[in-house]
Amino acid sequence: MYALAGRNDSSAPGSVIHRLADWLEGDPKSPVVKHTREGEGVDAVIDLRAMFQQTFDTLACEDMPSLLKPTKGRLGLQDHEGLLRGS
Hints:
By secondary structure, the chain is of the alpha/beta class. The chain has one domain (2-85): Glutaredoxin. It has two helices and five strands. It has helices at 16-26, 31-35; strands at residues 2-4, 49-52, 71-72, 77-78, 83-85. The protein has a three-stranded parallel beta sheet, with no helix packed on it. The protein is globular.
């Protein structure tokens, strides 16, 4: 699933992308919650990717929603491939 951020949307909590990711990850009515089985990674069925118009140096990766950087494997490393930017 691709989410296209508006010109002024950022990685800040409360932004449109943040609210969408929080809903997808936590609301029982979201397709991510409905279709992800217990024990599966949050991106096992639906993998959210966000495209921002800003460059990486202007976005705070640490503020990105957890759905865009899920943990992987037994070490729990973060997967940052869900964070995309326009050119």
